[in-house]
Amino acid sequence: MHWGFNARGAWAIFSTEVERAFRTAFQSIFAPVLTTSLYFVVFGAAIGSRMNSVGGTSYGAFIIPGLLLLTLLGETTSNASFGIHMPRFSGTIYELLSAPVGVAETLLGLVGAAVAKSLILTAIILVTARFFVAYEIAHPVLALGYVLLVCTAFALFGFVIGVWADGWDKLRIVPALILTPLTFLGGTFYSIDMLPDPWRSVALMNPIVYLVNGLRWTFSGHSDVNIWISFGLTLAFLIGCIAVVSWMFRTGWRLRA
Fold first, then answer.
1. Is 2 within the bounds of a domain?
2. Do residues 120 and 26 make contact, with C-beta atoms less than 8 angstroms apart?
3. Which domain holds residue 230?
4. Number of folded domains in the chain?
5. I want to staple 154 with a disulfide (CB 3.0 to 4.6 A). Which of 76, 112, 200, 224 is the partner?
């Protein structure tokens, strides 16, 4: 693989992946938005109207950041993992490796497309939430920056999974059996301050708690944990994923085999 920067090559990879999302719009966009909307109906409008505020915020508005991450973590990881696993499965990965496209263009195209699809989902979900819940975003610029940070980190994580997986069934193991349960237990529907000890201490060992609360702070200004720890852990995870992906390209692990 060449190491010079090829902007046209990066755009070709990016546009191909984004177009694939629109060709399968029902599965890639409408299905996750519909699922999230059902959560808004059940928990936000129906149950939320009968619950007290949480941290000075209505319950419906309180759960929006958690529900947003519940969708984004799974979809971003799955989109990125599929984007690299499909060429490996079909054998076209060798065309990519031998093309005048460097590591930077490959990652910018594949990871950038997964992030772009997640931003589209974010916009649609937030617009849809307006129909069910009244909410405000206290720090919109920071919210956008944090969503970008999280999506980029988990797109890289999905890339790692796509290279690691040796079959289609393994692509769903991490999103379905690890990320989704951890997100449900990560304070999506409740404040961990409501938990008695030792369950609160156990909850603090869940890394998704810090992601949810980091985004929740940008929405309401309220967080159950130190937001600098949330931002720091998210950035550390991003750097770790970059290191692993760099090692994969440097060694060719499962890319050239």
1. no
2. no
3. 7-251
4. 1
5. 76
